[in-house]
Write a structure and sequence with these properties.
This protein has 353 residues and is of the alpha+beta class. Helix content is 35%, strand content 20%. The strands form 3 sheets. A 5-stranded mixed beta sheet has the order 11-10-9-12-13. Strands 1-2-3-4 form a 4-stranded antiparallel beta sheet, covered by helices on one side.
């Protein structure tokens, strides 16, 4: 029998031991971790406020005061044997380009690797990631394909969604057929790869300065889009000012009975995301949490979320989905109608032309 006096690198408990050590060190240095996101730490107030993001042993440091950043680096150098990589330019496969006007996040190098591994580096590009109105089924009768190869392609595409909200829905859609993929499903994946080949430098751009940054979001849903289960899809997209910060495309867990119910359930998902974002932003800026705006294109869902008079029409809806009504009543969020043509979240729940 052997007993380890300390966790060795590579063992299961090593990461946990390191996280405990790093957390204790940052607390001693005056940091407090965010209650909304436990991998984010903050110290100081106002212009001297310092933020640190942690991923295992990689730290991102940001703040308005360069002297505070330099001071923190010296403090950490005393505690650990660390490397200062300078201005952030590459992090977890994400390329960061910082300029005078703003910051661009992209994964061009990672996208090229995906195309090379799929043997499609020189393929002909296409303009959309999926054919409009395309419907795929798990009960497909065409020839099966190698499931391991299919799962590898889809899993690599899923990581690309971190900087590409325009493929979030289609990648999630082809992920539904990873158990028994067929030629139809593989052709849909190859269509996504062809689209990526033509938009390899696409990413998210965040402008510096501008008007006051306010949190607002869009949410939308289709009706029974999954032909196997008749469940609907939810799309949620949040902006800080004019910059997208979070996006979500997922299949709903229940079968809805009306378009109003579909939109109402999607609104609950958006409300949960918005509450978390508003709380996180308040902690990062050391301010009071403010009300955020959610834009929906369903008048009936908006009325249902604001007025409990419609109980007879909604009593079959699960109690948990009425969370959005509580958020509106408490003033945590506001809801505004937006026409279908301006519903940006539309791209997160169906293929568009």
């Amino acid at each position: 029998m052997l007993r380890l006096d300390k966790a060795l690198y590579g063992l299961r408990q090593a990461l946990r031991a390191w996280n405990i050590k790093l957390d204790e060190t940052l607390v001693v240095l005056g940091f407090s971790h965010s209650t909304s996101e436990h991998t984010v730490y903050a110290r100081g107030k106002g212009a001297s406020r310092l933020l640190v993001g942690v991923y295992v042993d990689d730290l991102i440091i940001t703040g308005n005061d360069a002297s505070e950043i330099t001071k923190f680096k010296r403090e950490m150098s005393v505690k650990f044997n660390m490397s200062d990589l300078g201005l952030l330019c590459f992090y977890l496969g994400i390329e960061v380009r910082q300029g005078g006007d703003g910051i661009k996040l992209s994964q061009a190098a990672y996208a090229r690797k995906i195309l090379e591994r799929a043997g499609m580096a020189s393929c002909n590009p296409c303009h959309t990631p999926m054919e409009p109105r395309l419907k795929l089924s798990k009960a497909s009768t065409v020839a099966p394909v190698d499931a391991i190869e299919y799962r590898g392609l889809v899993s690599r595409l899923r990581y690309l969604v971190h900087t590409r909200p325009n493929i979030a829905f289609v990648v999630g859609y082809v992920s539904r057929f990873m158990e028994n993929p067929t030629t139809e499903h593989l052709n849909a994946v190859k269509r996504i790869l062809r689209y990526i080949a033509g938009t390899i430098d696409y990413g998210c751009y965040y402008k510096h300065g501008g008007k006051e940054l306010k949190l607002h979001g869009y949410n939308d849903a289709d009706m029974g889009g999954d032909i196997d289960t008749r469940k609907s899809s939810t799309g949620v997209l949040f902006f800080l000012g004019s910059c997208p910060v979070t996006w979500q495309s997922q299949k709903q867990k229940v079968v809805a009975l009306s378009s109003c119910e579909v939109e109402y359930i999607a609104g609950m998902t958006a409300a949960c995301q918005g509450i978390w974002l508003a709380q996180l932003l308040a902690e990062l800026k050391s301010e009071q949490r403010t009300t955020f705006l959610l834009k929906m294109d369903s008048q009936s869902a908006i009325a249902l979320s604001k007025n409990p008079v419609f109980h007879d029409r909604s009593k079959h809806i699960d109690v948990r989905f009425h969370f959005i009504r509580e958020c509106v009543g408490d003033g945590k969020m506001d809801i505004k109608h937006v026409c279908t043509e301006e519903q940006i979240a539309d791209i997160l729940m169906k293929p568009l032309p």
